[in-house]
Amino acid sequence: MRGPDEALTALRAGADLIDAKDPERGALGALAPETVRAIVAEVGGRAVTSAVAGDGTGTAIAAAIAAMAATGVDFIKIAVGAADDAALAEAAARAPGRVIGVLFAEDGVTDGWAAHSALRLAAAGFAGAMIDTRGKSGIALPALMTATQLAAFVARCRAHGLMSGLAGSLGLADIPALSGLGPDYLGFRGGLCRGGNRREALDGARVAQAVAAMRTGLRADAA
């Protein structure tokens, strides 16, 4: 969501996770802290909130995490890339129990890579890990990684006490297969916007369809 208005649209459609980011700036475009604060205020505890802090590690990203933490958002997302263990620990320490590490499918994810990444993030104190796509050209996550690879990633996160998320140019048609893998959440942007364009406004009807599809999947898993 890029502002309070979109957050309200998503809430009214039944969304239970509101993610604040700037879709004009790619997968991890951060909004200004004051905008995130306004989104958090609009949500008012009616859903879980997350926000992108940026892409990178070191002093700059640590400061960005601290700034986002001060907005009151529940979780903060950062790209972890090739960060070493010390940099990961420093990032996690800026918002204990609230930082989610973002990995990109284009980086050649394998089962072994997923297991190693989950272990490192858990050891550093991260709250969760997710796989997204760096490019936003319409190539969806399932075209870059197999269901077996994604299931292994989710399982490794669970084994190390991390919440897990899957995202990356996802559409409504991707929900049944991906929700069946058991991630804690699925992330969307373009697939839930008008005309399927991530730069357009959020479409409340599409959000409601996504919510219904995911809840149907949860009921099927519990049966």
UniProtKB/TrEMBL annotation:
> Which reaction is recorded as catalysed by this protein?
2 D-glyceraldehyde 3-phosphate = 4-(hydroxymethyl)-2-furancarboxaldehyde phosphate + phosphate + 2 H2O
Q: Which residues form the active site?
A: K21 (schiff-base intermediate with substrate), K77 (proton acceptor)
Which superkingdom is the protein from?
Bacteria
Give the first-level EC class, as a single word: lyase
Keyword Nucleotidyltransferase listed? no
What is a GO molecular function of this protein? Answer: lyase activity
Q: Which UniProt key words apply to this protein?
A: Lyase, Schiff base
Q: Does the keyword Lyase apply?
A: yes
Transmembrane residue ranges: none
Q: What is its EC number?
A: 4.2.3.153
Q: Which Gene3D superfamilies match?
A: Metal-dependent hydrolases
Tell me the function of this protein. Answer: Catalyzes the formation of 4-(hydroxymethyl)-2-furancarboxaldehyde phosphate (4-HFC-P) from two molecules of glyceraldehyde-3-P (GA-3-P).
UniProt name for this protein? (5-formylfuran-3-yl)methyl phosphate synthase
